[in-house]
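Reopening: structure tokens for the nicotinamide-adenine-dinucleotide complex, inputs below.
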Amino acid sequence: MTRHTNLFENVNRQFDAAADILGLSLELRELLKTPYREITVAMPLRMEDGTLRVFKGYRVQHNGVRGPQKGGIRYHPDLELDDVRALASLMTWKAAVVNIPFGGARGGITCDPAKLSLHELEMLTRRYISKLSMVLGPTRDIPAPDLNTNAQTMAWVLDEYGRKNGYQPACVTGKPLELGGSQGRPAATGKGLAICAREAWEGVLGGTLQGATVALQGFGNVGSHAATFLHEAGAKVTAVADLYGAVRAPGGLDLPALRAHAHANRGSVTGFPGGEAFDPATLWEQPCDILIPAALSGVLTRETAPLVQARLVLEGADAPTTPEADEIFQARGIPVIPDILANAGGVTVSYYEWVQNLQQLFWDEAEIFSKEEKVLVQAFAEVHERVLAHHCSWRTAALVLALERVKKANELRGW
Ligand code: NAD
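Re-run output (same inputs, fresh job):
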């Protein structure tokens, strides 16, 4: 989502590194890189001030050989079709890494939700779903929350899809509990990050989470839950930056108090009395053991990667690291646990939400988290095996695992 880098080109460069290891043919590479379907829709909306504005929305369905396509809907003023292509393809690889039967999709609307009223956001969401509903559905493509969308947005998606198709809770995940959402879904991505942090920090780097220091960009759904689980595991969250500002405390921030403050302060950490304010642009150079980008894509670049002092980077956001930054981290010996593994807890629990909806039954949070833990620990170990076997980065190893699975599914389907 930053304009100095094309996310789709970056994702495809990363794909090629894994395809080289597997010796994939040029034909197969083209087949696997090319999105299956791309839709752009125009959405005229009468604003509350009486003016008419036309918004643009996208849905890209990248690959569905392993199951229905799955991916979030994001609202952001800089969103472009190439971003959505990149994010859709990441979803294909992510679902394959954790071995859940989904393909990859992604979508969104180019808009600044902070400048829209709740009613305008609802109307925009409904228009978007109404225009796309023929390609959505529980066995085709299942949206979920993403940047600047939440359970309320998913409730509107459910309702709008249901107008034409009847009650089908499995058509969307990340819904409120009252509408068939799953226990544990809001915290699932952050929980998965904490599981991967433990596996990497303790299992691979030989450290202990007790007392380890953590810095995060983003304190929304992903960042705030990851910070909470790591805090509960004994880590010290020493710096947090968000859209509005940043706060740090070298001895560790009081996480429950910071969450309560953000809750009462439009989600922002600014003005938190238990820490010192600092320039959010300097987040990357804050001293810490574990750095978690959990907001934007394309933020770890050839400029910011050399500043990083952490010993481990865990990608909470999708595509936060450019290929140039990856090379810098690789040369500096700093492992980067990639998005398609580190933040896959969200899609994993979305899968369980979908399963519960299809069967019309409900599991409790402990059961959901224990299923998520099992899936992520297994995926982490399978990626680690490939890091060791191919002497490659964690990102390339995760993509190798994903490509093995998607390639096999392609072959079995006769393509
Ligand atoms: P969110 O909207 O709940 O929170 C976003 C956070 O990022 C907020 O704290 C916001 O202030 C901060 N932010 C926005 N712009 C910023 C900027 N310019 N500088 C610093 N901080 C900024 O979103 P989320 O659901 O937490 O998603 C965050 C990232 O994680 C996205 O890249 C998303 O694709 C990815 N992700 C989310 C999920 C999920 O389950 N929600 C799953 C996988 C990946």
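Residues 188-342 form a domain with the Rossmann fold fold (CATH 3.40.50.720). The two ends are 33 Å apart (CA to CA). Marking as resolved unless the reporter disagrees.
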